[in-house]
Amino acid sequence: MAKREVDIVIISDVHLGTYGCHAKELLKYLKSVKPKMLILNGDIIDIWQFSKSYWPESHMKVVRRILKFVTEGVPVYYLTGNHDEMLRKFTDFNLGTFQLLDKIVLNIDGKKAWIFHGDVFDVTMQHSKWLAKMGAVGYDTLILINSMTNWLLTAMGRPKMSFSQKIKAKFKDAVKFINAFEQTAADLAVEKQYSYVICGHIHHAEIRQIQSTENTGSVLYLNSGDWVESLTALEYNQGDWKVFTYYADDFKTDNDEDDVTDAEDLDAKLDVKSLLERFRQEPG
């Protein structure tokens, strides 16, 4: 299958290391594209909930695929989020075309794009980190139960369902939070005179023009969604932005060729599980 050439691919909220992560689907997507730039906008690896007992091969393959982009000379920016905030102590680390940052401003075809994860806008994250972590564990448990339910529904020939999306849809506060998040990001971006503001964090893919609260201008707000429920990414190509949504029927013929990095046995060179355990245990 020929790879799609894309100028920029942005993914966020993958949550590698958790049961809810759709690593196999993400791997198929990453294999299908040939980006000129890859931006990992936070919560790619879930160091909060990481356990050495759960790190499937499919999760390692995603890491290999990302590193393969680096070996091919593709600029890869890893922007830290709240679930991988332990990496913030290594901000500004770079190796070849790989850079670890907290945020970045890029010039995209003459327009400035302000890109960051977005947890800075989350009041729960700022003032009650322990509550946010407890919520994350509960969320992961819900996703695990949902996965088992969907397996049964599929076996019965019935459509899948999303527990958390149904719960979110019923709570007006969740909708208010998303709207407030988007408006806050837009207001700051307009103030800084950026054309684009690009976030993750809230697991809600979006592209829309937002007017500032003070009516001093507008900005194109974009969110890449997540790879736990929505299975979405942002793509920029030939001047246009779009939300890519993964559908299994589009990836029935998967190319399973071995990566160069696979052949070199990356696992033996980089003990990811031990590194993540260290990040999780070391004080900030």
From TrEMBL:
GO molecular function annotation: metal ion binding; UDP-2,3-diacylglucosamine hydrolase activity
Pfam families according to UniProt: Metallophos
CDD domains assigned: MPP_YbbF-LpxH
Lineage, top ranks: Bacteria, Pseudomonadati, Bacteroidota, Sphingobacteriia, Sphingobacteriales
InterPro entries with a match to the protein in the record: Calcineurin-like_PHP, LpxH-like, Metallo-depent_PP-like
SUPFAM superfamilies, per the entry: Metallo-dependent phosphatases
GO CC terms: membrane
Biological process terms in GO annotation: lipid A biosynthetic process
Organism per entry: Mucilaginibacter glaciei
Keyword set, alphabetical order: Cell inner membrane, Cell membrane, Manganese, Membrane, Metal-binding
Protein name per its UniProtKB record: UDP-2,3-diacylglucosamine diphosphatase
Domain Calcineurin-like phosphoesterase intervals: 8-204
